[in-house]
Amino acid sequence: MKKMIIGILVSMSVASSVIAITPQEILEKIDRSRAPANTFTCKLKVESLKEDSTSKVELLIRVKDAKKSLVVYQSPSSAKGRVLLMVEDNLWVYIPGTSNPIRISPQQQLMGQVSNADVARVVYSLDYQGDSVATETLGNEKTLVLKLSAKTKGAAYKSITLWVKPDSYLPLKAEFYALSGRRLKTAYYKEYKMILGALRPTLLEIHDAVQENSVTTLKYTDFTTDATPEAFYQKSYMERFSNQN
Amino acid sequence: MNSSLIYFFSIGLLCFPFTIRASTSSVTLFEQITYRNLKPDPILNPNQEILGFPKGINKLYAIADYKSDVSETLRYQIRYRPIMESTRTETIFTGILDEAFFEWKQGQNFIYAGKKNNKDGVGLSANPTDFLGENKVVDKTKREEDRRIQREGDILLGTDIFQNNMSYSVLVSPKIDSIQNENRYLLKANLLLEELQTDVSALYFSGSLSGIGLNLSTTLGDSFVIYTETAYRYGVAPKKYVTLVNDATPRDYQIESRSGAISYVDSVLGGHYTFGDASTLIVEYYYHGGGYSSDEWNTISDFILYANRQYKSGFAPALMSGYLQQANALMNFGSMAQHYGFARYSKPSLFEDLDISFVVLANISDGSLLLNPYLTYHMGENSEIYLSTYLFSGTETAEFGLPNWNPEITMGAKWNCF
Q1: What pTM was estimated for this model as a whole?
Q2: Which of A53, B89, B197, B393 is the most exposed place for a label (fewest CB within 10 A)?
């Protein structure tokens, strides 16, 4: 009887905490676990695994006020020095040797299942709004399921479904959907580590919805809160970022 | 000051005696074979007798980059291209110093001096606002974006000033005997209108053919980019005109530049769409006010036809041969007419390691076409092989009917050494 009462109280507590917090607030908490601050730098290794081949790209990412990001290619040598700049929904690529960055669309692919916007945009709340939240069991774990829909024209996906831990709001899984409603890919957040004062996922494993053997991993390391002057986040500065490693 | 002095100056930079904070270097090696299927009796080169064109060209070259930070505020950068070009009859070695410059940083502002490859514009098939780079020698066997990378810079002094979402530049490129034949300067302002997802560049260029330029590009949704690039040009055009001076026998033609001032507009309007399968389509219209009008082109066509017919009939062969040589020198395929259409479809990662693209460049005035399928096969992370074909289509006096060969096939390998 005592256990039953405690169970009911715990359930009520979880339910009331879910009700007390809006989908948008949950989304902001998820973003805070993915990005250590609004302004930070980190390194990212993107590895695309297919049936009989592997390709790798190493990137340096600088984020300013969450909405401006710079991605500098460090390897392979064929792409070294290439720079992506994203300011809101504006995206440019700079190819070493020419001082003329080209505007590109967020949908253009980086490699494997990863678009430029996937790498350059580190938070969801800029492009998506939380619509609803529910509870669901994922494997053996109870989770909150958050439905997101695109709120900007430049959002790479029509909608996203996110599975998060109910206590810490750490993301576990995400499904990304196209305009047609077709599922494009599924991502799993893994390898949680203490970084800059909080537990954060450092590995994102992305599975293609069609080619099931095709997997892309994004491994984040070397987080710091270095700041770069805001004036340098513009296309005419990209050549100079290309020289940095 | 001459080119050899600049060369040794740049080599000297490599041995710069200061303590270097950080440096990066890279070398990319290219081996490329081009085969031209020479026409047996092209209109510009009857029976291939006027000019000798090689059937095959082997080009082995490298692009070597060196970038170094001397201190927090000072850095320098060098780009050098050694080239060995061989045909059946000769081998030529050249070295082109594309860039060698110092840059000083003062807060959010920069001052640079030396040789620098400045590039402006948002178009792919043409860049009307690329004022400093417009007369550069480019390798047209390369893809449009690679042509911009593999070209020689200008000796200049410049400054860039950065503010939030804005930057301003002033570049001065002086006249230097045997290197740069006039004083030029360029003023630029770049602005990002974040809310409108649009960036704007305004340019003012002063030279013998001055210009005012405006570039706009914007993103629509998550897959579509549109852009426009426009220049108003005024001054003395380098273009050569063909004039029938005397309709006697033989006809007297003059081929020369005109000294009077002219003005015209050059403009590119384009869009770039990314499909769900990651393939992209770029479509551009290029209005080239500096190109030959229909009347001017008709005069050129008459001139070529006349010289060809008379030469083949044996009439005044030395004069006709001279006319045909001058006609060949006029040819700058892809930028002679006033109306062009350009389309490029690209599909990356086909069968994982193969990129394909197909380019169509159309002279809208005469209906002639240049078709360019391009295949790139990636062999690991640092090397690739490529195969490209230029197919020309058009009547005998249409722009893309005139080339002395058809098709031209290029195959090559690229290796990023480090």
Answers
A1: 0.81
A2: B89
